[in-house]
């Protein structure tokens, strides 16, 4: 009889008692109800309202934060007119002043 067969016999003699305990314990541990919150049917109405509002607040807070800070998340574009357009605006303002009309920012 080899060493491997001796090891198998040793485990075969040890198996019935120990494995039956572990199999029962593993069946009990599959249900994770003891590790998490109780079902909602055990909550009172004010607790249900609070849970709903807390969940909604947590779920909507990040998208709201992103939407309110969109201008800070991207670089601001440089608002500048074409040089030809600026020259035309200056020419029209000078012409308006020459005619006696006050300069206006609106063309």
Could you characterize what this model shows?
- The chain has 107 residues and is mostly helical.
- It folds into three domains: 1-32; 44-75, no CATH class; 77-107.
- Helix content is 67%, strand content 0%.
- It is built from four helices and no strands.
- The chain has helices at 3-30, 45-68, 70-73, 83-98.
- The chain is elongated and about 115 Å long.
- The N and C termini lie far apart (107 Å).
- The model has no long low-confidence stretch (mean pLDDT 78).
- Keywords: Membrane, Transmembrane, Transmembrane helix.
- It comes from Dracunculus medinensis (Guinea worm).
- This is F-box domain-containing protein.
- The chain crosses the membrane at residues 49-70.
Coarse shape:
elongated
Low-pLDDT ranges: none
How many domains? The number is 3
β-strand percent reads under 5%
Q: What is the helix content?
A: 55-70%
Average pLDDT level: 78
Structural class: mainly alpha
| Spatial extent as radius of gyration | 39 Å
What's the story with the biggest beta sheet?
none
The end-to-end distance, rounded to whole angstroms, is 107 Å
Number of helices: 4
Give the H and E element order.
HHHH
Number of strands: 0
Task: Record keyword descriptors for this entry.
107 residues; 3 domains; mainly alpha; F-box domain-containing protein; elongated; transmembrane; transmembrane helix
